[in-house]
Amino acid sequence: QQPNVTSYGATALAIFTLEEFAGMWINAFIVSVLCIGWIKKKTLNSNEKILLLLGCSRFCYLCFSWVYYFLSTVYLNYFHVHPTLQLFMHFQFFFNYSNLWVSACLCSFYCIKIANFRNSFFVYLKVKIDGIVPWLLLASLLSALSITITAYNITEIMYKDSHNFTCLGNFWEVSVRKDKYLFLIYFLTGFGYAASFMAVIFSAVFLLFSLWRHKHKMQTNSMKSLSMDAHIRAMKSILSFLVMYSINFVCLILTIIYAKKNENTMMLLISIYLYAFPGVHSLILIFSNPKLEKALLKILSCVKCK
């Protein structure tokens, strides 16, 4: 099949290729540094486990996103072969959900590990958090998988119904049923975004309240508090993620609104942000992690010397 792409599609593809390959390199760097440390030390701490899974899920998400957009732009007719479109779309769906849920786990981990509350349940979580993290990550992957399978089944039912009713010539029935199935898919997507978004909001609020209490106690003490520094570093990371997550959630709503209106320019702007999010946030995580920041600066200094 000969490639068929407009100048608009070529421009969009160039932009997405640039930002997605940049995001792939950033997340591949995180995974490589953590895996090398894992081989050397034979162990990973809880923070590194979350970052490793997050880097892997984001790398895979960006890979599938780029392949999906490339084929849908250059070889559009290739997607008419069932179920190519569904498979690519739902692999992208799964890794995006994994990315969101594991990111929420990272924020929750920072909150539990650093915040100081006297509540017995919170103290129990703080003591047991290292043992809970693997189960949280497993639950995140299983949740993403279950929602993806549900969405795939809905898409399959929608495809079969559309094919049957089109053969009968009932196009109005096709439109009504398609809207119903699309609503279910949008509902699942919104539920996944909203649930993980709420986890990030609660983590930010609890950590901010803990920081305020700790600062209030330290007002009479002129010595610098290590706990205060840890609070501030975690707060910067979570707040940056909260801001980006908020924009991400707004972009999801705008995607639902503009998807049916065929607003290509608006959809392009939304997609540029959505595909840039995994790379930009991973870059923030690198500079908030001393081990990753040190490795990056070491590589950059070597490149500069050469």
How many individual domains?
1
Biggest sheet: strands, sense, closure?
none
Succession of helices and strands: HHHHHHHH
Unreliable stretches: none
Helix coverage percent of residues? over 70%
Radius of gyration: 22 Å
The percentage of residues in β strands lies in under 5%
Just give the CATH class.
Mainly Alpha
Total strand segments: 0
Kindly, what is the distance between the CA atoms of the first and last residues, rounded to a whole number of angstroms?
A: 44 Å
Descriptive report:
The chain has 306 residues and is mostly helical. It has one domain: Rhodopsin 7-helix transmembrane proteins (Rhopdopsin 7-helix transmembrane proteins, Up-down Bundle), CATH 1.20.1070.10. It contains 8 helices and no strands. Helix 5 (171-218) packs antiparallel against helix 6 and helix 6 runs antiparallel to helix 7 (264-287). The model has no long low-confidence stretch (mean pLDDT 78). It comes from Cnemophilus loriae. Its main location: membrane.
